[in-house]
Amino acid sequence: MERRTFLNISGLALGTMMLPVTGRAIAADELLAPMATAFKKTLADTALGAATKAGASYCDVRIGRYLNQYITTRDLNVENVANTESAGVGVRVICNGAYGFAATNDMSPDAVANAARQAVAIAKANARLQSEPVQLAPVKGVGEVAWATPFKKDWRAVPIKEKAELLIAANKAGMDGGASFMQSIMFQVNQQKYFASTDGSYIDQDVHRIWVPVYATAVDTASGKFRSRQGLSAPVGMGYEYLDARPEDKIKAAGGVATLYKQSYDVIEDARAAGRDAKRKITAKSVTPGKYDLVLSPEHLWLTIHESVGHPTELDRVLGYEANYAGTSFATIDKWESKTFKYGSPNVNIVADKTTPGSLGCVGFDDEGVKGKRWDIIRDGILVNYQATRDQAHIIGEKESQGCSYADSWSSVQFQRMPNVSLEAGKKKMTPDDMVKDVKKGIYIVGDGSFSIDQQRYNFQFGGQLFYEINNGKIGAMLEDVAYQSNTQEFWNACSAVCDDRDWRMNGSFFDGKGQPPQISIVSHGAATTRFNGINVINTARKIG
Amino acid sequence: MTILTQEQTKKLTDRLMAFSKADECIVTVNGSRTGNIRFARNTVSTAGLSDDTSISVQVAFGKRQGTATINEFDDKSLEKVVRRAEDLARLAPENPEFMPAVAKQAYKPSDTFSARTAAIDPEFRAQAAAYAIEACRKQNLVAAGFFTDRNQFSTIANSNGVFGHQAQTGLDFTCTVRTADGRGSGWVTRTALDAGRFDAREAADVAIEKALRSVDAKAIEPGRYTVILEPAATSELLGYMLGGFDARQADEGRSFLSKKGGATRLGDKLFDSQVNIWSDPWDKDVPVLPWDEQNMLPRERRALIKDGRVSALDYSLYWAKKKGLNPTAGSGNIIMAGTNKSTAELIANTKKGVLVTRTWYIRMVDPQSVALTGLTRDGTFYIENGKIKYPVKNFRFNESPVTMLNNIEEIGKPVIISGDEVAYSMLIPPMKVRDFNFTSLSDAV
């Protein structure tokens, strides 16, 4: 479930902006000094020792320091600059076959040992009600190792003034392009995560991420209409170099209707285009409902993959652990066991991974100390696997965890979260323009918009940012009021072609929500431009008052 | 250290103000103790207790503003947090829309604390889960749910003499009950300020009954139906719409409350005459803090929709000054007028219709009309001649809450409700609404 936090930021049409700012604010110069590894190891050993002594059969410790910087702008004003830090220790144990978890922001040995003992006490209490003892798939300890996001430019070292000026320049470009109002935000994340377990791992990781969403709104006072267009950037697991736009990373959309981006992003150019597009949308033709062949750009399709493949193949949902909140899944174990369940057409090959450089899911090790991997979820259209953690691997006959454990804070307990889930590029050489040539009556959609799917992931509805009609192999006029409604299995079985790897790129989410109490995760989804035949399109325009 | 008294926080905020060398200083202190228990597959999955207290200090030099927060309370830390905020303020660019801190205000306390809720212990939480689990095990049903309770305080202060302190408690319980074969699903939500008004058995029984009744749902054609929407089916739709009562957005032409030519719909009759919605911090069922923590203005009882007319918009300090109007304290709760009729009475008065337990995954489709999409979930039933005839498959809807509130036929008795994604405490009645737009069927149970 994409949380509405995302929508509240992006919409701006209703309500005030909600930023997920947590933790204490610190001065910029304090961000660069890391905690000493020796200190973290000693603290971790204290917790491991205390938990074991209290009766735990297993213990893991996560020492986290989470640094964020948010710069928010509105038109030509910087609204807010916030530096936040959150640091503390989370201890998870297994005792008598049950989990226990406790966390503290007091990083003294006594407090951490106490948290470990509390976790054991909670596990013992939970064990009395436990009907399914926890079984962890084995993980070999890796000793003392380190991993870092391979960034080139550290966002923490770039002056705030330079960043603020970039956003203001983008907003100005958007307003010059035709927007009445602009908003842009720079989210910058550094997670310093230290993991240690009784399996003998001491893993120090330094994770960097950045996202620069842009929102252009055009208002036509005479008609009373307003329309918005979001930026087409991706949130990435990279450094500030993502904002140093390189010509080789720019791609023309089919028919040249937009400029799209691969490994770097030109925020000023895209903001200008967003302003222009927002204004054009006001007078665009309203779509005629009916069946259309949809040509979906990766900037759009990532969200459909996320909701209709990513979430239904989370094993905890399949098993019922999320029944009271996010829901369960139609992709049940019997369908997987049959080895014949046609999730999609033979063109559909979906791969999960925690290894693609630059992606949000890319880490050296997950929050259970399992090395990042890559595996098939759907092969030639058939459901072949799920996403699992150590305690779930045995349920699907895996000997090892797939490395899908994540917690959004040192104070949150880790659980199964989505790795990158991506559609493989087609093997046949095909560009988006080639793909459009085969379409008689279709719609080309660029960018993600409104999204909603049922609790078992059958029925969905998606909007977008830019819509263009396709008539007899040619991109035509801009359309508005477009959303498509389909059923997951029908939709993926209608997949008729996927462009080749020259067109493959990732997009993703900074705010994927799951669990009670809710936790936020990050995930990327890759795809090339893809075609789906005969999909039901509705007209979303309504009149009130 | 978690739950501080008024005397303690007064001393603390005075100390912080004394450290400040800035033109102005605004302080908020929040502390909470939150407990929870989560269960699924008829067993407890996680349980926890978390304590947190934090101080936020916002200072300004001219139009430059900085904010810092900390969770340590010794004198050295208090001075450090003030200095950090001052450092950030000096680095920040001038904000042309900066507004100075408000003058001293009077806040009339609201009754937001219950000693019974504050005393909830792990045994109470375990019992809340245990009843649903045990009842479901006996009936070959599967329970999943979440119970959480909180005991907290909020303090606000500024260098103009503003000071407010109040304690709050609350609990939320949700439970989903599914048949073992996955063909039926029921759900319940309960929220209470006072634990004495929460009954885990009553709640679980509702979810169990809905699960048993929803087995073997029939598919009926999507289209426009008369619906009886239980409060959990409308709370988030209303939350979406009322969250958009912002004057600046309306004046700027980018809201459903904007009109052609630049005017707003303030004063317009946009809804059925039966619709009356207000906020009131002192409401006995859904009391909230008597101030808006963002701008520290006192909340008042305020009509948002009166006899179907838009009767108020929210003005920030900046926008009010620009427009020469008074700024408003944001609403903390939403109360909709109803009658004494039960949901059963609304059903009895219905010839043909659909009963909707709840709606889910609601997202904006068109901000121009607040057209929303989402789905029904966990108990959707066909009504004929005043009786529930059979369960029906879930629907996707595409509908604007503005249209929904125009098509009201009958209103029932309001109940306390909170939503997954709504920030308000709400008191919402069940409603009978004609021509509700279901656009497709869902196979989800």
Defining traits:
heterodimer, A: PmbA/TldD fold, 2 domains, 9-stranded mixed sheet, globular, disordered N terminus, B: 445 residues, alpha+beta, 6-stranded antiparallel sheet, 6-stranded mixed sheet, 38% strand
Characterization of the model:
The complex is a heterodimer of chains A (545) and B (445). With 545 residues, chain A is an alpha+beta fold. Chain A folds into 2 domains: 4-282, PmbA/TldD fold, CATH 3.30.2290.10; 290-539, no CATH class. Chain A contains 10 helices and 27 strands. In chain A, the strands form 6 sheets. In chain A, strands 1, 2, 3, 4, 5, 6, 7, 8 and 9 form a 9-stranded mixed sheet that branches. A 5-stranded mixed beta barrel of chain A has the order 13-20-21-23-27. In chain A, helix 2 runs parallel beside helix 3 (109-127) and helix 4 (160-177) runs parallel beside helix 5. The longest helix of chain A is centred in the first third of the chain and has 19 residues, at 109-127. Chain A is globular. The model of chain A is unreliable at 2-29 (pLDDT under 50). Chain B is of the alpha+beta class. Chain B folds into 2 domains: 6-212, PmbA/TldD superfamily (PmbA/TldD fold, 2-Layer Sandwich); 217-445, no CATH class. Chain B is 23% helix and 38% strand. Chain B is built from 10 helices and 19 strands. Chain B has helices at residues 6-19, 75-91, 115-118, 122-138, 200-213, 231-242, 247-251, 317-323, 343-348, 401-406; strands at residues 24-40, 43-61, 64-70, 141-158, 163-179, 185-192, 223-229, 277-279, 302-306, 309-310, 333-336, 352-366, 371-384, 387-391, 395-399, 408-411, 415-417, 425-428, 431-441. In chain B, the strands form 3 sheets. A 6-stranded antiparallel sheet of chain B has the order 3-2-1-4-5-6. In chain B, strands 10-9-8-11-18-17 form a 6-stranded mixed sheet, covered by helices on one side. In chain B, helix 4 runs parallel beside helix 5. The longest helix of chain B is centred in the first third of the chain and has 17 residues, at 75-91. The radius of gyration of chain B is 24 Å and the shape is globular. In chain B, 55% of the residues are buried. The model of chain B has no long low-confidence stretch (mean pLDDT 94). The interface between A and B is large, with 89 and 94 residues.
